[in-house]
Design brief:
By secondary structure, the chain is an alpha/beta fold. Helices cover about 30% and strands about 25% of the residues. The chain has 8 helices and 12 strands. Strands 3-2-1-11-12-9 form a 6-stranded mixed β-sheet. A 6-stranded mixed β-sheet has the order 4-5-6-10-7-8, with helices on one face. Strand 11 and strand 12 form a beta hairpin. Bound molecules: zinc ion.
Amino acid sequence: MRIGVLGDIHGNLEALTAVVEHMGAHEEIDHWVQVGDIVGYGADPGPCIDIVRELGCVVSIGNHDAAVVGRLDPDYFNPYARMAIDWTRDQLGETHRTYLANLPLLCEHHEYTVVHGSLHMPDQFGYVISTVEAADSIQHQKTRIAFVGHSHVPAAYMQRDGSRLEDLEFIFGPEIHGDIRDYVRVLVNVGSVGQPRDEDPRAAYCVYDTSTLQLKIARVAYDIESAQTKIRQAGLPSVLADRLALGV
Ligand code: ZN
């Protein structure tokens, strides 16, 4: 089975469309996963939810998704994010809000686990940005691979067979290629479709092949200017448009 994994989309329809078209043409995906934050920041939350649903993605809820439907306190966020959350809530109809409201914090499939932030207290939406937080998450991981998002920075943390959690190995992106057969547990931050923060503005996506154990994070260029124009026209903070071109 080839699993296609989409990270933080954040209402960026141009990025999501480019990634899905590219994966459709090149990746032969059998099963789709989305790690949460379908909405928030970008100007097309509803159409992005529609695409995630049409693909049949297995989805774990993100902190922005949760805040839009009242499952997370807005005080968690900075003022720009809060403005985008309030704007997003007003854009969504009942069907979209109900969809977000019913997303689980965590999904455990027999081949993988998916959670937005960390398997260590998923409802706290903690960030995995070093081997310390990765070890906290991996200790709860029952499958060989787990997919997370939240930091918008592609990375893989790997526990070699017979090694201790204190000795995790790691790789940072922007792109990652390799097989994970030497590792018993791997935690993958799949990067962000709609708002990359690793100074590479291209949209990120991840593919994992359960037969060959090949893991890949790749990048796709998209029409950033159109996404920026829509954010500005919507009256959202212009910093949310500016950052897309910088990948920060
Ligand atoms: Zn996010």
